[in-house]
Design goal:
Nucleotidyltransferase, domain 5, 5 helices, 5 strands, YqgF/RNaseH-like_dom_sf
Length: about 140
């Protein structure tokens, strides 16, 4: 089973994939506009053919962000899509790169590596909540 997770932001879309139980961060999609980003993600979905797309979704306190993510995902022609709470995923991703220098951490934010590590955390949460998915 192949699972793909996305951490959708205004500037970048972090991606992570789980294949045979191994979760790996992927190259993020850098957003120039919504159309370009959705087409790039659609192409990636068609290329990798995951069984499920897992999307990080903030809680109700972030209604505008939730609506933006739901709208963006609505542009995709893919199913099934599962939404997983993304609270603190970016903070946990930041902890994963705490050993890097300040400059390297800034670069990780800028190039999207941090977003893809957040997508890894979203994917870990999904796998932990549905352990039979890997059988």
């Amino acid at each position: 089973m192949i699972l793909l997770a996305a951490d959708i932001g205004l500037k970048r879309i972090g991606l992570a994939m789980c294949v045979q139980g191994v979760i790996l961060p992927l190259e993020p999609i850098l957003r120039h506009n919504r159309q370009q980003a959705s087409q790039q993600l659609q192409t990636f979905l068609e290329l990798k053919k995951p069984d499920t797309l897992i999307v990080g979704l903030p809680d109700e306190h972030y209604a505008t962000t939730r609506a933006r993510i739901l709208h963006f995902v609505g542009l995709l022609d893919f199913a099934p899509i599962v939404y997983v709470g993304e609270s603190s995923s970016s903070e946990l991703a930041l902890e994963e790169i705490a050993h890097l220098s300040h400059k390297q951490r800034q670069q990780a934010r800028k190039n999207g590596m941090l977003d893809s590590l957040a997508a890894c955390e979203i994917l870990r949460r999904y796998v932990a909540s549905t352990p039979s998915i890997l059988l």
